Amino acid sequence: MSFTNLIQSLNQAASALSVPGSSNVQERNELREACQRFSACLETPVERLLRTSSGCIEPAILRLAIDIGVFSLLNEELEPDTEIDVSEIAARTKTDHGMMSRLMRFLIMLQVVDVTPQGRCKATAVTRSFKPGTIIYNHVVALSGIYLPLFGRLPTYLRENQYRPPDDAYRGLFQDGFKTDLHFFDWLDIHKQEHDAFHGMMEASASSNLVAWTQYIPREWFEQRLTPSKLADGGFTLVDTASRSSRKLERMSHNFFHKQPVRGADIYLLARILHDWPDKQAREILSNLREAMDSNSTLLVYDRVFGDQLEKVSAADAIYDAVMMAFFSSLERSEAQFRDLLSSVGLRLCNIWRGDLGSDGDKQAVLEIVREE
């Protein structure tokens, strides 16, 4: 097939595709991976380096556009489809004209803003996605305000520490990079913009998981443990970090570094918790749960679980593992690492249920854990 015919076929296929979110998740991920492999075949090593290295520039430029007020102007102050000169954008945002010209040139290159043949700027659907509270807005704020400073410091930090990964949630790259002795979550509590952006990202990420963790586990497993007599006897108690009213659940506020108040429960759950904590603190969390468990109790852990051998992983798996190290001095664990961690506090892993591909291509798992007598 000639390049001309191939280009025409690809353009036709792109035009025929529906909205990404409406397609089958697994099929969309497989198609995206195939396109990435195809693109990689066309790139030279230098072109790939230039493409990947620009990833540290784009969030900073987008954050600049947010802070200056470009998106507020285009999304809130102007009517839809309004065309506007760079000089007017500069005047209305009180920004130097030369600086605004350079900024808009970059936004046009990113296809975040459109440009007419007459050189006037115009908002697009992508522009409108940069409104406060949207996942894209939150992502840019978090990337520019937290991720970039930390990962820019990562090579120096590891070199200074003889390339040993951090292993204490209160003494790691985050504390070094932001000159604080606070845990990441405690630091967020006093930095509102980053707090709202980060938690907005996490909520959007959780809502994008099309398969709930409960669907990984066979229905029969729940039926054997949650019998009608047990449900009639007392219902459920949800022990969490914050107390909120609910007619279906009895909620109880709890710090999992303290003694677990509910003793001998049928099921305990740690959903996306342990990956936030290195082994040092994870052992404290698990030890408190073990002391509360009896011979009939089960601990369910919902987390990523890597294979024990080096293997090809999704981008989400690799990125989240790096984020765990940078933010929390922690890691996404392999099955063997989970077994070692659990056995160190008198717990035993007896089963793993693996889920289907999530929206970002990663695989989650639910671990069934019992007390080792």
UniProtKB/TrEMBL annotation:
For the biological process aspect of GO, one term held by this record is:
secondary metabolite biosynthetic process
| Pfam families referenced in this protein's UniProt entry, alphabetically | Dimerisation (PF08100), Methyltransf_2 (PF00891)
Key word Lyase present in the record?
A: no
Return the InterPro entries for the record: COMT-like, COMT_C, COMT_dimerisation, SAM-dependent_MTases_sf, WH-like_DNA-bd_sf, WH_DNA-bd_sf
Q: Which UniProt keywords apply?
A: Methyltransferase, S-adenosyl-L-methionine, Transferase
UniProt-annotated catalytic positions = 275
GO MF terms here are: O-methyltransferase activity; protein dimerization activity
Question: What is the superkingdom listed in this entry's lineage?
Answer: Eukaryota
The chain positions of domain O-methyltransferase C-terminal read 252-347
Q: Enumerate the spans annotated as O-methyltransferase dimerisation domain.
A: 52-130
This protein is called: O-methyltransferase-domain-containing protein
- What species was this sequence derived from? Aspergillus tamarii
